[in-house]
Structures are given as C-alpha cells and as structure tokens.
Amino acid sequence: MKVIKFGGSSLASGKQIEKVFRIVMSDPERKVVVVSAPGKRFPDDQKVTDLLIECAELCLQNNNPKAKVDAIIARYSAIAEELSLADEIISEITEDLSRRLNSDRTKPERFMDCVKASGEDNHAKLVAAYFQSQGVDANYVNPGEAGLLVSDEPGNAQVLPESYDRLFALRKREGILIFPGFFGYSEEGEVFTFSRSGSDITGSILANGLKADLYENFTDVDAVYSVNPFIVERPKEIKELTYREMRELSYAGFTVLHDEALVPAFRAGIPVQIKNTNNPTAPGTKIVYERDNTNGPVIGIASDQGFCSIYVSKYLMNREIGFGRKLLSILEDYGLSYEHTPSGIDDVSVILRENQLDLEMENEIKWRIESELHADEVKVEHSLALIMVVGEGMRRNVGTMARASKALAKAKVNIEMINQGSSEVSMMFGVKEVDEKKAVNALYEEFFAAVTA
Ligand code: ASP
Q1: pTM of this structure
Q2: Domain stop point among 264, 288, 312
Q3: CA of 200 to the centre of ligand 1 (A)
Q4: If you ran DSSP here, which 8-state letter would residue 354 be given?
Q5: Which range of residues forms the domain containing residue 117?
Q6: CA 211 to CA 205: how far, in whole Å?
Q7: Closest Cα to residue 126, out of 78, 196, 174, 173?
Q8: Which of 19, 73, 370, 438 is 20–30 Å from 311 (CA)?
C-alpha cells in the first residue's frame, strides 16, 4: 500500500488533476492521496494559499476581502469547469470559505490557520468529486475525523504521537482516500496548520500511521538535484540518498521536500520516492535508510541565505564552566532559535536566521553578553550564507574538508566559519551572501564536474 502526495503545481488546473488521476489509477497500491491547495500555473501566478493569507489579513484589518474571495473562488471554478464537475462543489467551497471568514477573529493566528487550511480542505473535496465523476470509489477524508491530532501552535503545528495509532484505522476503509494536506486538529477540535509547504508532512505522517510500503511525493521536478539548478546549470540528479542526507540538504535550501517531512516516514522505516507529475516515468529520487553506492564523499551541496552570526570572544572561555549555557540562555530569553555554534578555545559564534532579530534586540543582546558574561568582544555579522556539503561517504573518505577549502580558496572565497556536524554527514561553510554562488560553483566543480568529466 502506498501513500501518494501531490504538490500545488500538480493540482493547479484541471489538466494537472487529470494527470494526477491517471497516475493514481495506474497503480492499485495507491490508496491514500494527499493533496495540496491549487498552486501556481505559471511563474507569476499566485498560490491559493497566498490568496487565502491575504484574504484573512484583510478581514483581520476590518477591510473588505471580496476581491480576494472572488479570485480564490475563480481558481476553483476554472478547475471545476475544465473537469466538467457539477456546480454543487463550487457552492460548497464558497459556503465553506464564507463560514470560515465569518468565524471568531479574537485569536488572529487561529483565525488565520482556519482560513489557510481551507485551501487544501476544499481542494481535497474537489479532487474527490472528480474521481467520483470518473466512476471511481474515492472519498474525501477529514483529518479531524481520521484522528490527525496536532499541537495548538498556529502556523507551526506538530503532530501528536497518538495520531499514528488512530490513523491506522484508515486502512480498513474501502476505495481511494483523498486526504487534505497541511493541517490537523488540536485536542479541542480547532484547526492548526503545519509550517508552509506542510502537506509533505501530512503525507509522511499518513505513511507512518498506515504503515505504508512507500511514500510517494509527486512534485514538478524529475529528481532531487545534487545542487540548486538555479546556481549550477543542469546539475547531476541524485538517484538515491539517505534520510539523513536529505534532511541536511532540505534544511539548507533544498525545497523539494519539507525538512520536517522525513522524520515520520523515517521512524517507520518507510522509503520516500520523489517523482514528477509531469514526467511520471522518470525514475525520480529514492530516500532510504541506508545506501550502498557511495559515489564519492559528497552527494549534494545546499545553500541558503539570511543568516547572521553573533561572535563572542573571551580569554580563557574554555575554562569557564557554564559559559555556553549562559550565552544560549540569553538568546532563549528573546525566543531566538539558533542553527550552529562553531567554537574555538576562547571564542564561539552562534549562527541564527537573521529575520528573527531587529536592531534594538541585537543591541540589547550585545550589551547583555558584554555586561553579564564579561566578554572581551561581541560582534554581530550580517548577510551570511550557509553552504552545506553533504554525504554519508564523508565518514569513510579522508581529506574532504581539505578539498572543499582548497576549492573555495581557488575561487577566492573567504570562509567566515566552518562547522562539521558530529554525525559526519555534513560540513558547513559560512560565507558572505555575495560569495554564495561563486562558492557553490567551486564546490560543485570540485566534487561533481571533475568526477564525471
Ligand atoms: N498550500 C500550503 C503552502 O503553500 C501547503 C503545501 O502546499 O504543502 O504552503
């Protein structure tokens, strides 16, 4: 039995939904279909989820959302018309949206989640209606009724562990189950969404709960590439990689799969297959527990911008018990989460996503570190990019770090910091954002282009 998830671009039009139908019907093992809200049809198009967010914001500011509501309904109507569906589905969607927009606004973030989740919820109903119109036994499943329970964190919900056992009961249901992605219900019965692109997470949770043999994730690229194709032209495709490698890569800019989507499938030992809705015969990329073919030390290079580092130095820091804890607890006071902490004997840098702090907070933090921890120097450096060089093969290969830093030196990229994950699956290089592309190209050249030439 397989759980199969389709992303927004795979469900953006009637034509795309016809492709989805053919893919699902071509394999009787495909039992649970997880759907996203309609995504972009062309590069400048708007995702329905983005329209819903704008719509909810207008309501919260007491402005009239009519133009946005019309645009959302127009998206569903165009799809329904293309698929020759009866008018009822559009009336149902219109009523549902208006009920949500008129619901309680006293907790704005919950109101936002309730409106946002309608994108997937209503699309699942529409997709189910289309399957039924084709004579297939397919039914919409409500995540609350199915037992997908989540924490009450708006826009960032986490699955509650008891969900898995409850979801197992879905196996007994007849026919194909069309399940909306992106949200679940709190214990109090309220809707909460995962973070953006979270339908991937729903698919993984269902694969785990239903003990599926495979979690197929259909998107709009043929495979996971070894590097961002917007930085390096026609990069090598990755045929197979491990959960750990994918987690490292998707954390640092590989957007093919949500970085939180792997854990549920991984815990149940279910492989994940990435495939292309627009080219379903391409083999795609398989994410597995262990892989045999090492193909050299590096499998992929990811990079992401928007980081800053708080550099702290203090003579004899190595001998001061509790320094690290005190430093991190200052950051905790401001609700900041950090990504890495490369350190030396007398210094440590804490790397954070810089959109978390403004200038006032930054100055306060600097002042507290200086005065409370008696640091000799505190510096905040902005506009950093992190580059992750990832591969299980690094554990067995000597000299990968030397090759990487030599390649960066040759490209005249100054390395601001280096960190090697303790798992030895990844190496992190911090560089100035302006150097990101140059650095990624140099590393790709070193680990991939030279090998295949
Ligand atoms: N529609 C949601 C988003 O755009 C979730 C998803 O597509 O996975 O973030």
Answers
A1: 0.88
A2: 288
A3: 9
A4: G
A5: 2-288
A6: 10
A7: 78
A8: 438
